[in-house]
Design a protein that fits this description.
With 223 residues, the chain is of the alpha/beta class. The chain contains 8 helices and 7 strands, in the order αααβαβαβαβαβαββ.
Length: 223
């Protein structure tokens, strides 16, 4: 995808919300709004298909890759994820579904303002606005503004910039975290320097996987 430089213990939870609401009302402030309700599986499936149908530029990842990301996030217990190149939110929804199981959060950066707006709207329709934050901007400028580190980074941006993104974000990856990059099979010729970099990165193990023909690299940062 193109990029120019993109729970539950119910009773205690409800009790906490009641206490917060009571305190807010005593202070004269309105109680906090609850997060948007999660969509059912059929609704999310229909939404994902709708996004794919509208994806004229073929910027979204494949369904197979989306399913892989959801399973990876859930099984690894991912808590703080970063996506560079969010497009219209298709991959963000798949990642968000996994994070719904782990209690984690995703920050998704998208350069194009129209796509960033579409992504935020689609994330909201999926009931994931409390899990996925969409940021519009140049990731080279936006990532340094973010606090903390990440235990998963997913890169699906301008291919010739993959190595620059890796060099910038890999130091922000927690030990034991994973760095994934998309299109490393079907667009391999556009990112030779990146593939060399992950193969030679000290303290890291890398592998190429292909849930679909597009391919993803998976780089594990050793503890």
């Amino acid at each position: 995808m193109m990029f120019q430089s993109r729970r539950r213990l119910l009773a205690p939870g409800l009790a906490a919300l009641a206490l917060i609401g009571l305190g807010a009302s005593r202070c004269g402030a309105p109680p906090p709004e609850p997060p948007a309700p999660a969509r059912s599986a059929p609704q999310e499936t229909a939404l994902l298909q709708e996004i794919k149908d509208k994806d004229q530029g073929q910027l979204a990842i494949s369904e197979e890759d989306g399913r892989f990301l959801r399973v990876l996030v859930a099984t690894r217990g991912t808590r703080r994820a970063l996506e560079i190149g969010g497009a219209s939110g298709y991959s963000g929804i798949w990642i968000g579904q996994g994070l719904r199981q782990t209690g984690g959060r995703l920050i998704s950066i998208e350069y194009d303002p129209v796509r960033a707006q579409e992504a935020a709207a689609n994330i909201a329709r999926a009931g994931l606005s409390d899990i996925v934050q969409v940021i519009h901007g140049d990731a080279f400028a936006e990532v340094p503004k973010l606090d903390g580190t990440f235990d998963m980074i997913f890169l699906d941006a301008w291919k010739q910039d993959y190595k620059r993104f890796f060099d910038m974000t890999f130091p922000r990856l927690d030990p034991g975290g994973v760095f994934l990059a998309h299109n490393v099979v079907n667009k391999r010729s556009d990112m030779g320097d990146f593939l060399d970099a992950i193969a030679a990165a000290p303290g890291a193990w890398s592998s190429i996987i292909a849930p679909s023909g597009e391919g993803m690299s998976l780089t594990y940062k050793q503890r």
